[in-house]
Amino acid sequence: MTVSTQQRLEMLRTMLLARRFEETLTELCQQPDKIHGMMILATGQEAVGSGACAALSPADVIVTNHRSHHHLLARGADPKALMAEIFGRRTGCNKGKSGTLHLAVPEVNALCTTTVVGGGFPIATGLGFAQQYRGETAVTACFFGDGATSEGSFHEALNLAGLWRLPVVFVCENNRYAAAQGYDEHTPIESLATRADAYGMPGEQVDGNDAPAVFEVTRRARERALAGEGPTLIECMTYRWRGHGEGDPQRYQPAEEIAAWKARCPIERLSETLRARGELSDAELDDLRASTAAVVAEAVRFAEESPWPEPREALDDVWVA
Amino acid sequence: MSGSREGEMTMQTLGMGQAVNQALREEMARDSRIFLAGEGIGVGIHDSPMMPTAGLLEAFGPGRVKDTPVSEAAIAGLAVGAAAGGLRPVVEVMFNPFFTLASDMIINHAAKLRYLSGGKTRFPLVVRIKSGAGFGAGCQHSHNLEAWVAHCPGLKVVMPATPADAKGLLKSAIRDDNPVIFIEDMGLYFAPDAVPEDDYTIPIGKADIKRAGTDVTVVTWSKMLGVAMQAAEQLAGEGVDVEVVDLRTLTPLDSETILASVRKTGRLVVLHEATRTGGFAGEVAAVVMEQAFTDLKAPLRRVTGPDIPVPASPPLEQFYIPDAGQVVAAIREIV
Ligand SMILES: Cc1ncc(C[n+]2csc(CCOP(=O)(O)OP(=O)(O)O)c2C)c(N)n1
Ligand SMILES: [Mg+2]
Fold it and tell me: Where is the Dehydrogenase E1 component domain (chain A) (predicted)?
């Protein structure tokens, strides 16, 4: 199967949306008192969220982490509800309980988002187990960073998923850093995909800045999972353009390295491909940029005009009534 | 530090992170068995000199300041094994909730292996944990778990409220032959205060009366000391004289200082940022009820975080964190 034009255009749209969403957050973080708490962005990594999510069906579940905006937007989460949550407003998707770090959006089957590094692996295993148990035609995609594979939970969960042939697609977003630590400083092997061998599943490395390539490999992994053949580990090679969070001066990221990866922008790349194939005109690209920008502007307006939660609402939502 | 000693010493102004940094530097210079390990303690994403491990990699090199992968269980286990092997590890847990990932090594091992050996082994290690609410990150970064570790025999639990105490207590923790959990509220990193320049220790297991008073005792620790002092100031204007006891160490608990204060004032409020149910205020209250019941002139009160995870949105998080108004109200109920 090949990737259709419509699928390519949709990936381009979700990447443009995520890029604009996060560039706007960068700007907002530079204004006093707009955004509270940490701000962790995936600028430059959009092809992973867009490519992988394009290969999923609405019934599939995703598990994401602290760097989730691009996954959730690609999954179709409401940008207004996300932005309002990031602003801490009552209209946010989690009523201000979460902020940016653990955005749960059950409406798009993003049921369990965790900012505890490595927390997602065993949960994804459980979600996959539930899908297998109930005989569902659905898989779980688990997004995580290169650094997360250093947690014990990675090894326990992948072993179990491999053993029980659970329908889980483990999508590693190898952006070459775990906070300030370079890949070589936290992992002694060249490719994380090779770890799949140890857990009885295939491991595939893919260019993580090539959305259609991420799409293809995710689609294959999903088909394997649905056929009862178990999980796959996908390693998407990409790069974090910004610091770990906003406000990180990035002293440990060489300027030439950042520049080299910016030259491999996943958005430029896909729009070039589409143009070369005659599937996208300059005017259409301008339209896409304008329409995604308008969506983000509307999300910011909505967030800024939304009320704060009442203090006592902090007491709500601990328990199922 | 007691007020009287301060007068004789040369003072410097430091945040708690800087005071911790100074203690680490001085102890590492003194004892080559001490090494540090943790996530981002050498090369980090923060540039601020207010952070506790700033500059230590440069000063002591990568052999003694170990940046680790994101592997809390391995960090904690490294400390347990290295301590058994004759070193004196000081490891860092980046945020208190991530201690749960390290907890098997600390609770099932560091705290128990000596006992299991019939007293033949020892585990001189320190786990520094950064804690506290108030920075908008939500409950997976802010969750004060001191009562969990205090509930575990074999661990000492230290929670300083001032930079001067942090420096002296950390030195004691490092020199202690037992596992010590040393919890630093990150809000205090940015609240500079006077710290003696000398090499001094403060004993683990000794509370400190930060404000003498006669009408009511407030027992607290860590960042909530500031809240207690604010409440005391406010009530002083109304003629209520508050005594503020800073526990500094949760286990071993300085019952003597608590009981002496309550016997004098006849009233008790216990204040902490952690959630209420099962919180350490209950332990302090139980000690007082068992040993000073007849000295109480009124029921004791607890002022704590409510029984909810710490929410991220500013008005919700503010609602969570106990403030001076709540302490004043609790005191007014019983005086
Ligand atoms: C258990 C745990 N330890 C430490 C942290 C602090 N932390 C947050 S993100 C991060 C780095 C994670 O790196 P990686 O998995 O590569 O994801 P990336 O941030 O690069 O997307 C760290 C150490 C955490 N959130 N959870
Ligand atoms: Mg990474």
Answer: 14-311
Question: What's residue B47's pLDDT?
Answer: 84
- Give B-chain residues touching A152 at CB under 8 angstroms: 71, 73-74, 101
Neighboring chain A residues of B70 at a CB cutoff of 8 Å = 117-118, 147-148, 150-151, 178-179, 186
Considering only alpha carbons, which residue of chain B is nearest residue A155?
Answer: B71
Amino acid B1: pLDDT: 43
- A306 domain residue, yes or no: no
**pTM as predicted:** 0.97
- Angstroms from A220 CA to nearest CA on chain B: 30
Residues (pLDDT < 70) of chain B are 1-7
A256-288 per-position pLDDT tens digit: 999 999 999 999 999 999 999 999 999 999 999
Q: What is the CATH number of the domain that holds A60?
A: 3.40.50.970
B3-196 is a CATH 3.40.50.970 domain: yes
A2 band by pLDDT with thresholds 50, 70 and 90: confident
- Assess if residue A269 is contained within a domain: yes
| Residues of chain B contacting A, Cβ within 8 Å | 39-40, 43-47, 67, 69-74, 97-98, 101, 135-138, 140-141, 306-309, 311-320
From-to residues of CATH 3.40.50.920 in chain B: 208-334
Q: Where in chain B is the domain with CATH 3.40.50.970?
A: 3-196
* pLDDT for B3: 42
Domain of residue A122 covers: 5-300
Residues of chain B found within 8 Å of residue A314, distances taken between Cβ atoms: 306, 308, 311, 316-317, 319-320
Which residues of B are marked as active site?
Answer: 141
**Can you tell me the distance from the alpha carbon of B166 to that of B183, in angstroms, rounded to the nearest whole number?**
10
Nearest to B45 among A99, A147, A245 (CB): A245
Ligand 2 centroid, distance to B226 Cα (angstroms): 38
Atom nearest to A149 CA in ligand 1: 15
Looking only at the bridges linking them, the beta strands covering B65-67 and A140-145 are unpaired
Please report the ipTM that was assigned to this predicted complex. 0.97
* C-alpha distance from residue A124 to each of A308, B273, B302 (Å): 33, 33, 40
Domain count, chain A: 1
Asked if residue A25 lies in contact with residue A87, where contact means CB atoms within 8 angstroms, the answer is: no
Q: Is residue A320 assigned to a domain?
A: no
- State the CB neighbour count (10 A cutoff) for residue A117: 26
CA distance to A35, B71, B156, B281, B299, per residue, from B143 (Å): 21, 19, 19, 16, 28
CATH of domain B208-334: 3.40.50.920
Within a domain: residue A310?
no
Q: What is the pLDDT of residues A95-111, one digit of tens each?
A: 999 999 999 999 999 99
Tokens standing for residue B152:
């575990």
Main-chain dihedrals φ then ψ at residue A247, nearest 5 degrees: 95, -10
Q: Which ligand is closest to the CA of A152, given by its number?
A: 1
Residues in chain A: 321
Q: Is the per-residue pLDDT at A89 higher than 90?
A: yes
How much is the pLDDT for B264?
Answer: 98
Nearest to A99 among B309, B313, B318 (CB): B313
Structure tokens at B141: 């970064």
Instruction: Tell me how long chain B is.
Output: 335
Residue nearest to atom 5 of ligand 1 (CA): A117
More confident residue, A2 or B241: B241
pLDDT at residue B6, rounded to an integer: 53
Measured between CB atoms, does A264 come within 8 Å of chain B? no
> For A207-254, what is each residue's pLDDT tens digit?
999 999 999 999 999 999 999 999 999 999 999 999 999 999 999 999
Which pLDDT score is estimated for B9? Answer: 84
What pLDDT, on a 0 to 100 scale, did the predictor assign at position A1? 64
Minimal Cβ distance to A116: which of B67, B69, B98: B98
- Which stretches within chain A are classed as H helix? 5-29, 46-54, 69-75, 79-86, 120-133, 152-163, 183-186, 211-226, 255-262, 266-276, 282-305
